Amino acid sequence: MVTRLLATKLYPEFIKIPVSRRRLVETTQGFQELTSLPNVCGAIDTTPVKLHKISPDMINGSMYVCKYGFPSVLLQVVADHKKIFWDVCVKAPGGYDDATHFRDSLLYNRLISGDIVWDKAVSVRGQPVRPYIVGGGVFRCCHFCLHHIVIIGLEIRHRMHLMRR
């Protein structure tokens, strides 16, 4: 009952993807002030949430054992520059990897299908760059998500370019 209330009443009211122009600009500017990276609109990460009990008759109960060795489900969140969640997904057993959980999420499917379109492109070295999400190394690069290794490389190149001026 509590879960249903959270999912049907509270989630739609408080967890919202930044699609309005004003909120998108506020979010990307906030991230740029924090990171010096242009057009970042969110940061994504996944963590296991411990389950205290698993039913003994559960099929494939081992799927719920996470990489840390305890039964769990995966919690995936995307947050803005103020650390306010704008997407939450608790869908996969703890034994799943983060990237698979992301690919199975509604957010990923909406981004791939073009259902969510962020039109605030900025020019980076003459190329238009749409808003994107940053994440850990398990999130593969695609047109809307960069992982931290790519970002670190961009940041180092950007700082070296500024030092040459």
TrEMBL record:
This is DDE Tnp4 domain-containing protein. It comes from Sesamum angustifolium.
